[in-house]
Design a protein that fits this description.
The complex is a heterodimer of chains A (611) and B (731).
Chain A (H helix, E strand, L loop, with lengths): L60 E6 L8 H10 L9 E9 L2 E9 L8 H5 L5 E3 L6 E3 L9 H5 L6 E3 L4 E3 L5 H5 L5 H5 L5 E5 L27 E4 L7 E3 L6 E6 L4 E6 L12 H5 L4 H22 L6 H9 L1 H21 L18 H27 L6 H27 L12 H27 L1 H36 L1 H11 L3 H22 L6 H28 L15 H10 L15
Parallel strand pairs in A: 1-9
Antiparallel strand pairs in A: 1-8, 2-3, 4-5, 6-7, 10-11, 11-12
Chain B lengths: L2 E2 L13 E8 L8 E7 L4 E6 L12 H4 L15 E2 L8 E2 L2 H19 L4 E5 L5 H15 L4 E3 L6 H11 L16 E5 L3 H4 L1 H13 L4 E4 L5 H5 L2 E3 L6 H14 L5 H7 E2 L1 H8 L4 H8 L3 H13 L3 E5 L1 H4 L4 H14 L9 E4 L6 H7 L14 H11 L14 H9 L5 E5 L3 H4 L3 H9 L3 E6 L12 E4 L8 E4 L4 E5 L12 H9 L14 H12 L11 H6 L3 E2 L32 E2 L18 E6 L15 H4 L6 E4 L1 H7 L6 E5 L4 E8 L7 E5 L26 E7 L2 H10 L4
Parallel strand pairs in B: 7-8, 7-15, 9-10, 9-13, 10-11, 12-21, 13-14, 15-16, 16-17, 22-26, 23-25
Antiparallel strand pairs in B: 2-3, 3-4, 5-6, 5-17, 18-19, 19-20, 22-27, 23-26, 24-25, 24-27
Helix pairs in contact in B: 2-20, 3-15, 3-20, 3-21, 4-14, 8-11, 8-12, 8-14, 11-12, 17-19
Classes of the chains: A mainly alpha (611), B alpha/beta (731).
């Protein structure tokens, strides 16, 4: 057990003389019934079989932060990193700030934030490996780095930036609520270290001594309705109407008198007034694996579904291509999807643990996506294999046909499930830019455009220009539908982002400024492609060579458009995290440090790019 | 578990496997926190925690203290002694004996050729008191140079000078407990939460229990200024005007403590005559604080009953630094706020042992607050050391800030720098480079091989750092506390006590003077020298200091409390008896002469500098501790967004700052924390703010005015600036 010193100061001890029955959201603070088998069990902290005698062991605990008092002295962060032995680039707790007013009526409000051990831990639900557990003890949400395979999905879904993906170790770790100290009746290390009188800890909804508020929100703190975080605030000093962030996020917080709170709005002063390219940032991010995987998977699933359902929908071209170019086509689908899945797997912090991706199929859309896509992949390979056996009459046993059909059905099922959860996993409330139906429409559009383009190209390559010209009119309408769907989605997306304000609007602002040139290029390409494909579909050209050449141009142009689109999708998302500081937790400084080589000094606290 | 894994793995929480906790005292600032260092089975220092029973910090530590064990094996530590013939040669590693022989021979050669005072010694506030005392013995009693000073001239000299002028002696009269008794606190140029977070915590705890008015005088809106009941955003360098005006109101409205003035002070008439000119209407025009505010503050302070003032570099680092301190002392003397609970002039000190060097290093005189100018002091110390009193100079020599100009013009040819880094800390870096180049012999004694001064050194002594050695520190409230050795010195580095004592053996006179070989024996000597004086430590011993988590001086032999514990006095001058010959305090008139470098058309911005909580001094320590350094890994400048938009300067872009001395490249942080006509740059970074500073010297303390300079802002090529910024950062 954690050793309490004989002279341990009073402020370090937990003190919750009275406890409420329910929290503000109506949830019981007592987490399990007295009779529950979960009572009286050891947490086995570092294999210690002891059971803490904390009287409030089964009550939900949480932090209390008096924003009026925080001096940003970093003692909480330091105490946390000292206790958890974290290197400079990793921190379970961080202090950021917002500031406003005009000299000398200037005010800065600091926010110290770690994990909020939420009632609804979206990290736990999102994690595909089941590395997370919400414990009956203290309501602590703990994560086990030994189970984690480093996909980072929990870092996407958490609105508070609590889970930390360590690019060096390739795994996530996070605040453990200092449960070892709680077992011994002590407050967490960060709280005991606080010098400003800002950070407190206890059973949730309890207002600490000498404090009189326990409210849900302060300016800069992300919305609490996503996860019901276990943190309460005191913030009584009146603040200027507008509070700015010192980091590079194009966001500030504006007091909305009607709502009686501060809401995030776009900070246009942060962006460059003119449109920029920033191509290296756009195409060189850590998310490249996702760009490749999603494009590949959607293309292949799209192509496969066209091959399966096209004939029934009257697409005679598909029937022809299936009979003329079956093996090359399926070989191509196999290679494309294999490449996508390989890239996705290799982006994991610990690729060898890939098999853990199914562990949380009950809760995690990621697990379901992986399961679906894997099933699809297996089914598709099976279908291709058995059909080839049949086509070349290599084995003519009756059950081969049955196997081929079963494989196709499996692939269809897997494809539908995988595709749906691939979309679903991006519907993250903490990432408003993604949390829109357009994510789905864009995925479907990609499947239609690139799926049919792939069939067209492979068909053309195998059977020649004339063949391509014959297939074209039908397939071009599918491509056209895809492009049109993408366009409609984008228009609605841009309109809704602007309307909803906040992080989504900030993403849209970045889309028009920092990545403005790529955004315009993509939009122009979309219109041109739509026109070109319409011309091809309408059959205005008949010369096979011309048709083939134009088709290839169109396919390449669509591919470029799809890549830019997808790259923008990943690079533009602005999560609803708390503000950073000028250096620490400032994305722009991290990028600057990597670019200039400052990051090569480990004490700068920024991990240099590994690629 | 509520949900998640059914089959639980054991919870893993970092376990540093601490085998034992060892008591020591923090080696950063002079708050004087007691730290326990956790030692693992491999004898490695792996953890820290604040000592719960220590009165100063009561279990707390700030960010620097929390990661203090990281400095033991930080990059850039000095491993072996190094020598070279000239500064364009490469260094060679040599045995200690060889390096010491060479150093001793060089000092003697230079002294023989150019005179005894042509070799200067500049020390620090970083060593242990026993080391300071021994260095003083070596410098004053063996080497015999009168050009011997500490880098405390850059931080505390004005406080020392002001205390001496007002009270007849150095020594802060108050203590941290005064926060619990005061009815009004004014902080002049002190950003407590950032510079002394633990003292801030003590202040805040006291204020949460019993709310008293807090007034912060600072041109920047620091966190402290924000939390103040009243923030006085003063025009830089005009504190004396504000102080005079506060006294004007107090005297004009009869709020002074006439009985105290008459009984315990001299000079009230001169002060009364002087402050007549500083009515709030006139003063407001100079110091930028409106007349109503001045009156409100003066009345608050005058009527408080017990009121206290604290200050730091905002007062000290000015051409009116010493006057500012005297002004604060005047204010407290006329209101009877010296030597009583909650009423004091408390200088919040910088370095861990700035107080120790002031008390015992003989920099400004002789040990134990003795003066060279006093024949009896020379006699006593000479006898005690076994040195002919005539060997001592009869007047104090040059201060640090006058030693460098004397090198520049050739009066001084050799220099021994101990644990100080003038290449980063002194104003006008270009001038310091030019100066150091001229030395025939520069000895650098430092824990870090990469301290920038090694660029110009001939001999490098790798020193042990902090708790790699044993001895005592004195903190801001005169509390002597013990640093226990918790780990062996890094590589072949040696304790400064050893280096200084070994150096003594290189001199003929050093063989006649006793240099005790252990810190506790040195402490015994100091204890004997202190008996019966104001600075009495005769009741202390190393073991008692650990047992009682530090003791405040005066601490007289035999004075114990009911529990049998040794006790020291919490406050000085409780009896109203001061150290001037007549036993009274002096009230000194302070006419204001505006000699600040002020902004003009060509250089339209005030340049202010200051400290960040995560860094210490010139970053030789904290610049290598990632968990400190990451919060400000590269130089930056706070600038007002309105001023920036007029110049077209963007947030997070590089600019070139130009003064009449030189230029510096910094990243811009736009914030309304600074006024339209001011920029702020932290002083920790090498080749940065001190390339710009003028550093006019205070006439009394010789402390440079770091905080009042004029600069302009220019655009730079962003790519070039970024590249240069990386090149300039070795750590």
């Amino acid at each position: 057990m954690f050793q309490v010193r004989d002279d341990e100061p009073k402020y370090a001890f937990l003190s919750d003389p009275d406890v409420r029955e329910k929290n503000v959201h109506g949830k019981f603070i007592e987490l399990v019934e007295k009779s529950s088998t979960l009572h009286g069990q050891s947490l086995y902290i570092n294999n210690d079989a002891g059971v803490g005698d904390n009287p409030n062991r089964y009550k939900q605990h949480g932090f209390h932060f008096t924003a009026d008092n925080c001096i940003a002295c970093h003692a909480c962060e330091a105490a946390c990193s000292e206790k958890n032995d974290n290197p400079a680039h990793l921190a379970f707790r961080s202090v950021g700030y917002v500031e406003g007013g005009t000299y000398p009526a200037y005010q800065r409000m600091n926010i110290s934030m770690a994990c909020n051990h939420c009632d609804n831990p979206v990290c736990l639900k999102g994690c595909p490996t089941r590395a997370y557990t919400k414990f009956a003890e203290y309501g602590a949400v703990l994560q086990d780095p030994d189970i984690c395979f480093g996909c980072g999905y929990c870092t996407w879904v958490c609105p508070y930036n609590a889970p930390q993906l360590d690019p060096v170790k390739g795994q996530v770790s996070k605040c453990n609520m200092c449960v070892d100290r709680l077992e011994a009746g002590l407050k967490p290390a960060c709280v005991s270290a606080c010098l400003g009188g800002a950070l407190e800890f206890g059973v949730i909804e309890n207002t600490p001594e000498n404090r009189d508020q326990a409210k849900l929100n302060i300016p800069g703190f992300p919305t609490t309705d996503i996860t019901h975080p276990n943190i309460r605030f005191q913030q009584k000093r009146s603040l200027p109407r507008e509070m700015n962030r010192p980091d590079s996020m194009p966001l500030k917080y504006h007091r909305d008198d009607a709502q009686g709170k501060y809401v995030p709005v776009v900070d246009e002063a942060k962006g460059k007034p003119q449109r920029q390219w920033n191509l290296r940032k756009l195409l060189g991010s850590h998310e490249n694996a996702h760009i490749i995987f999603t494009l590949c998977a959607q293309t292949v699933i799209g192509a496969f579904m066209l091959l399966m359902f096209g004939p029934g929908l009257g697409l005679s071209a598909v029937v022809t291509v299936k009979s003329e170019a079956f093996l090359p086509l399926f070989a191509t689908l196999f290679v494309v999807l294999a490449v996508g899945m390989f890239k996705l797997n290799m982006h994991l912090g610990k690729p060898m643990r890939f098999y853990r991706g199914f562990n949380n199929w009950r809760l995690s859309p990621v697990s379901r996506e992986i399961a679906g896509v894997s099933l699809f992949f297996g089914g598709m390979v099976g279908y291709g294999f058995f059909t080839t056996l049949i086509n070349y009459e290599l084995i003519t046993l009756p059950f081969i046909q049955w196997l081929a059909t079963a494989s196709a059905l499996a692939a269809i099922l897997g494809g539908v499930v995988g595709f749906y959860y691939m979309y679903k996993l991006y519907r993250i409330p903490a990432r408003p830019y993604w949390n829109h139906w357009q994510t789905g429409s864009s995925f479907v559009a990609t499947a239609l455009m690139l799926g049919s383009a792939l069939i067209l190209l492979v068909g053309g390559l195998v059977s020649g220009a004339q063949f391509m010209a014959n297939m074209l009119p039908q397939l071009a309408w599918v491509v056209f539908a895809g492009i049109a769907l993408e366009g409609i989605g984008l228009v609605a997306h841009a309109r809704d982002l602007k309307q909803q304000g906040g992080e989504g609007a900030a993403s849209h602002f970045e889309q028009r400024t920092r990545f403005g040139n790529a955004y315009v290029l993509r939009n122009v390409l979309l219109l041109l492609n739509l026109l070109l494909v319409a011309v091809l579909a309408a059959g205005l050209f008949t010369q096979p060579a011309t048709v083939a050449a134009l088709s290839i141009v169109a396919v390449l142009s669509i591919l470029v458009m799809a890549i830019i689109s997808r790259a923008l999708f990943y690079v533009l998302v602005i999560p609803t995290t708390m503000p950073g500081a000028f250096f620490w937790r400032n994305r722009a400084f991290e990028e600057h440090a990597r670019k200039t080589g400052l990051a090569n000094m480990p004490q700068v606290g920024v991990v240099p790019d590994s690629h | 578990m509520l949900f998640g894994r059914k089959k639980k793995n054991p919870i893993k929480i970092a376990d540093k496997k601490v085998e034992k906790w060892m008591y020591t005292t923090c080696g950063y600032c002079s708050t004087g926190c007691s730290i326990e260092v956790g030692i693992d089975a491999q004898n490695k220092a792996v953890a820290t925690r604040g000592v719960a029973s220590a009165d100063v910090n009561r279990g707390k530590l700030c960010i620097k203290g929390i990661f203090e064990t990281d400095i033991f094996e930080a990059s850039g530590r000095g491993k072996e002694p190094l020598i070279r013939e000239s500064i364009y040669d490469d260094y060679r590693e040599v045995e200690w004996d060889k390096a010491l022989d060479k150093a001793g021979a060089e000092i003697q050669r230079i002294q023989e050729k150019y005179g005894r005072d042509s070799f200067a010694i500049v020390s620090t506030g970083q060593l242990l008191t026993e080391e300071f005392y021994t260095l003083g013995k070596l410098s004053r009693g063996v080497i015999g140079t009168n050009n011997y000073d500490g880098n405390t001239t850059l931080c505390m000299a004005s406080a020392v000078s002001g205390y001496k002028r007002s009270f007849g002696s150095d020594g802060a009269p108050g203590c941290y407990e005064d926060f619990e008794n005061t009815n009004c606190l004014i902080a002049f140029g002190s950003n407590l939460p950032e510079q002394h977070p633990i003292i801030y915590w003590r202040m805040r705890e006291a204020r949460e229990k019993r709310r008293f008015p807090l007034i912060v005088v600072d041109p920047r809106v620091t966190m402290f200024a924000q939390f103040a009941d009243m923030h006085l955003p003063i025009t830089p360098g005009t504190d004396v005007v504000l102080l005079n005006s506060l006294m004007h109101v107090i005297l004009a409205e009869g709020l002074e403590d006439r009985e105290y003035i008459n009984k315990y002070t001299n000079g009230i008439e001169d002060v009364e005559a002087c402050v007549k000119d500083y009515d709030p209407v006139s003063a407001a025009k100079i110091c930028g604080i409106d007349e109503d505010t001045i009156r409100t503050v003066a009345r608050l302070y005058g009527k408080a009953g017990a009121a206290m003032s604290i200050w730091t570099m905002g007062i000290n680092q000015s051409t009116h630094g010493s006057d500012g301190v005297v002004g604060i002392n005047n204010l407290n003397l006329i209101t009877g706020n010296i030597g009583k609970p909650g009423g004091t002039s408390l200088s919040i000190t910088g370095q861990c042992n700035a107080m120790g060097t002031r008390e015992w290093s003989s920099c400004s005189g002789l040990p134990g607050y003795r003066y060279l100018e006093n024949p009896q002091d020379r006699e006593d110390v000479g006898k005690f050391w076994g040195v002919d009193p005539e060997f001592f100079p009869k007047k104090r020599g040059l201060t640090e800030t006058d030693i460098f100009p004397a090198i520049e013009t050739g009066q001084i040819k050799g220099l021994w720098l101990i644990a100080t880094n003038p290449m980063t800390s002194m104003p006008n870096t270009a001038r310091i480079r030019k100066t150091l180049e001229k030395l025939e012999c520069l000895i650098v004694q430092d824990s870090y091989r990469d301290v920038e001064t090694t660029e110009y050194a001939h001999i490098f002594f790798p020193g042990a750092v902090w708790a790699e050695k044993e001895g005592v520190f004195t903190n801001t409230e005169r509390r002597v506390n013990i640093v226990r050795k918790v780990t062996e010195p890094y590589a072949n580095s040696k304790s400064d006590l050893w280096i200084i004592s070994e150096m003594a053996k290189r001199f003929a006179q050093g063989k006649n003077v006793v240099f005790p070989d252990t810190p506790s024996k040195v402490f015994d000597e100091m204890r004997e020298l202190s008996r019966g004086r104001m600075l009495d430590i005769s009741g202390m011993s190393h073991d008692k200091l650990e047992k009682q988590r530090g003791l405040q001086w005066p601490c007289r032999d035999g004075e114990i409390d009911a529990d049998g514990n040794t006790v020291g006095d919490q406050r000085l001058y409780m009896d109203g008896k001061f150290q001037h010959a007549d036993g009274k305090a002096k009230l000194i008139p302070l006419p204001f002469i505006d000699n600040n470098e002020v902004p003009d058309e060509e250089y339209p911005f005030w340049l202010n500098s200051g400290r960040l909580v995560e860094h210490f001094h010139t970053r030789t320590k904290t610049g290598k501790v990632g968990n400190c350094n990451k919060y400000s890994p590269t130089p930056f400048m706070e600038m007002n967004p309105d001023a920036a938009s007029e110049l077209g300067v963007a947030h997070m872009s590089y600019v070139r700052v130009v003064s009449k001395r030189g230029d510096a490249v910094v990243l811009v942080q736009l914030t309304q924390r600074v006024p339209h006509n001011m920029v702020f740059i932290p002083f920790h970074f090498h080749d940065c703010v001190n390339r710009l500073t003028l550093g006019l010297l205070d006439p009394h303390s010789r402390q440079p005015a770091f905080k009042q300079n004029a600069v302009r802002i220019e655009h730079v090529d962003q790519q070039e600036a970024a590249t240069m910024n990386v090149e300039l950062r070795k750590f």
